[in-house]
Amino acid sequence: MVDVTASHQRTASASDYLALLKPRVMSLVVFTGLVGYVAAPGAGDWVLGFAAVFAIAIAAGASGALNMWYDSDIDLIMTRTRSRPIPSGRIDREEALMMGLTLSALSVVTMYLAAGALAAGLLAFTIFFYAVVYTMWLKRATPQNIVIGGLAGALPPAIAWAAKTGSLGIDPLLLVAIIFFWTPPHFWALSLLQKDDYAAAKVPMLPVTHGAQATRVQIFAYSLLVAPLAVTPVLTGLGNMIYAAVSVLGGAMFVFLAYRVLRSKAGEGIAADDKRARDLFGFSILYLFMLFAVIFIERGFA
Amino acid sequence: MNETVTLTPEELKARKRRNMWLALSLGAFILLVFAITVSKMQAYSLLGISAQ
Question: Is the ipTM of this complex over 0.85?
Answer without folding.
Answer: no
